[in-house]
UniProtKB/TrEMBL annotation:
Highest taxon in the source lineage: Bacteria
Lineage: Bacteria, Pseudomonadati, Pseudomonadota, Alphaproteobacteria, Hyphomicrobiales
Protein name: AbrB family transcriptional regulator
Transmembrane segments: 45-68, 127-149, 194-214, 226-247, 254-270, 276-296, 317-342, 362-384
Pfam families tied to this protein: AbrB
Xref: InterPro entries: AbrB_dup, AbrB_fam
Residue runs in coiled coils: none
A GO BP annotation: regulation of gene expression
Keywords annotated in UniProt: Membrane, Transmembrane, Transmembrane helix
Record flagged with keyword NAD: no
Length: 395
């Protein structure tokens, strides 16, 4: 009896284990079920991303029209940038997909290139002194910014160094991260710098020179002025410019490539197409929204702290910029306005739009900003090996 009972118990236990195993197999999703789950998750993510992008563009457009009604300078860019930045800090669903900004940047590059004309480079020899001045400006501005973030903000050596260098955002964050800096803090500092420079520079211009940066970037061009031939030339210049910038590995290839192709076509008189103003306005709204979206998903307290620190560093940078532009204008034939735009540590696209609005030579501004990025990347990397805190060990 005991043996029978034991066997019965073992059989029952074995059958129970088998049933549990069968139940687990039945409960486990099949390959098709897992694929369905992945597809549902992807669709939900796509919907959330699309809604966030649409919300961002809607807020950017509202901000642009608000700035237009308030007669603010560059309203389509600054209004979009301001409102989306505030919304991002307030943790609104703000997002600009990576594919959205490059086409708009290429549109602006093609439009900027259309301002090229014969005689534009007739006095290129006068640009040598400003270029030398740029080197001295970068050394002074970079050193002052490093000391500010190291001594006042309390950043570690690497983070303070690459957060303070007035170079490109992507390049500085990448180089600093590779050397052990705080990636998030460096990205936020550079984003805040670009935001504050672009937002404040038009008002600084007006306060110092009395010359206001206009609401537009030239004469209004209506949609009805665009012919089929103009559309073809515009599309060709844009696509060829992106291809050129990509294969030639231009810095800011989506901007400099189309500027180069469009500029050459207009300079040699191959075409004289103009782009309707509404297209430029849409491009500015998207670019402004992309700047604002950089603050999304960051801790609001951290963003506010970074902005508070960046107000001081940006004020310091712009003071050095204005002083350098004034001194160089005394010993060169370039205007103070052109030099401020050439030296200002803002974004290339944004500074070029201001140049277009102020009727400043765009190639002059572009050359100095490209030189600034290249000099900072090369010079800052070399200098970083030589500059080391006293208490840090030798490599």
């Amino acid at each position: 009896m005991r043996t029978t009972t034991a066997c019965s118990c073992r059989r029952t236990t074995t059958e129970g284990s088998a049933l549990d195993g069968i139940y687990d197999v039945l409960k486990r999703p099949s390959i098709d079920d897992e694929s369905s789950v992945d597809e549902v998750a992807e669709r939900r993510f796509a919907v959330r991303t699309t809604v966030a992008f649409a919300t961002t563009l809607g807020l950017g457009t509202l901000g642009a029209f608000a700035f237009w009604e308030l007669h603010m300078p560059l309203p389509w860019l600054l209004g979009s940038m301001f409102v989306t930045s505030v919304a991002a800090i307030a943790r609104a669903p703000i997002s600009v997909p990576g594919f959205a900004r490059p086409p708009m940047t290429a549109v602006i590059g093609t439009i900027l290139g259309s301002s090229f004309h014969q005689g534009l480079f007739s006095h290129i020899d006068e640009w040598l002194i400003p270029l030398v001045g740029l080197v001295l400006f970068l050394i002074t501005a970079g050193g002052a910014s490093y000391l500010y973030f190291r001594k006042f903000a309390g950043f570690d050596h690497t983070t303070a160094y690459f957060a303070g260098m007035p170079g490109g955002l992507v390049e500085m964050v990448m180089l600093g991260t590779e050397r052990g800096g705080d990636e998030r803090m460096m990205a936020l500092v550079h984003s805040a710098r670009i935001f504050l420079v672009v937002m404040s520079l038009p008002f600084i211009f007006q306060a110092i020179t009395g010359q206001a940066v206009g609401r537009g970037v030239g004469n209004w061009v209506g949609l009805d002025s665009l012919s089929l031939l103009d559309i073809l030339w515009f599309a060709m210049a844009l696509v060829a410019g992106v291809v050129l910038g990509t294969f030639a590995r231009f810095p800011a290839r989506y901007l400099l490539g189309p500027i180069s192709v469009s500029g050459l076509l207009h300079y040699f008189g191959v075409t004289d197409f103009t782009v309707p103003t509404v297209i430029l306005c849409v491009a500015q709204i998207v670019i402004g929204a992309a700047v604002g979206a950089r603050f999304a998903k960051a801790n609001p307290r951290t963003v506010i702290k970074v902005f508070a620190l960046s107000v001081g560093s940006t004020a310091q940078l712009l003071s050095i910029t204005v002083a350098a532009a004034f001194l160089v204008s005394l010993i060169s034939d370039m205007t103070f306005e052109a030099l401020v735009l050439a030296y200002s540590p803002g974004g290339l696209a944004e500074m070029s739009l201001m140049a277009l609005s102020l009727h400043v030579e765009i190639p002059f501004v572009i050359l100095h900003h490209v030189a600034r990025v290249l000099l900072v990347v090369a010079g800052a990397t070399a200098a970083f090996k030589l500059i080391r805190p006293r208490n840090s060990p030798k490599p």
